[in-house]
Structure formats: structure tokens, C-alpha cells
Amino acid sequence: MTPETEYSAKNFQEVNITNSTRQKIIVLSMFAVILAADQFTKQLIQNRFAGNPDPIHVLGTYFNIVYVENPFGAMGLRFGPSWLHALTSSLATLLVGIYGVVSLFGKKNTSFFKNLGLFMVFAGAVGNLADKIMRSGGVIDFIDIGIGRHRFWAFNVADAAISVGAVLWIIFSTFKTKEVE
Fold first, then answer.
1. Which residues are catalytic?
2. pLDDT at site 171
């Protein structure tokens, strides 16, 4: 066995490159790209669908571009008035942001992928929070996937970043990392 295959065969370990300046730049750049892409696509969709509610079929009926305004929580869940959703979203976003900054800029070395996942969640949360505050209709969702009448909830770039980022953060928070000198 070569050293590479021996290492990769170990219990899904990640090489931890420490909180270098390069890591910080990559993580913060990814945050900015996700936030910009989220706001750009929402504005594009809002402009495109103004006065025309017909969906755009990208891959038959399996993948559509639609226009949905969601004034409530994830997947349209309601647990009170919309101002309560905005307040809890603000607090959650603030807590994730503080945790992310401490993780990225703190003295303790943290996994690159753990930080990346955390800042993906933070970017998505900021993007959706911006919608809740600045758009009267709530968060704009526009990606519609499913088969026939069996559809997933419409979502957006921010939602996708939150989901992927959460999975990354969970995976790299759960498994041990191997330090690199």
C-alpha cells in the first residue's frame, strides 16, 4: 500500500491545513460569491416573472424555474407572524456569523472544510434574511424539482448553500482530522 492509499483508507480523515491566510481568503471569497449569486439570481427571477407567472421548463417537468414568495420559514413552515420569523432569522444568522468568525479567526486551528461549510450556511442565512427585511413578499424561491405532481419545495441559491454547508460542517465536525505540519 502506498502512503496515499493507506491514508485515504483511514476513517475518512481530512488533512487540516490550519487557519492560514489563504484559507481565510478562500472561505470569505466563497461567502461573497454565494451571497452575490443568491441576490443576483433572485433579482433576475423577480424581473423575469414580473406579470408573467408561467414557469420555465428547463428539463421537461423535472426541473423548472418558478416564482414563489415565501414570507415564512424554511419550506413555508409557519410558527407565528412574519415579524417573528424575521426576528428569529436575525438572531440565528447573528449566532452563526459570530461562531463562524470565531472559528475562522480564532487561535484554535479549525478544519478548512468545517469553516467553509459554516460560512456557506452563513452566506445563505444572510441572503434569505436580506430578502425577509428588504422584500415585502418575503424570500424569493425559484428552483422547482420533482416528478409529476410529486414536487420538492421551491428553493433558491441561499437554501442550497445552507444545505450543502450544513452537511460539510456536520461531516467535518464529526470525524477526526489529521494535522499537517
1. 141, 159
2. 92
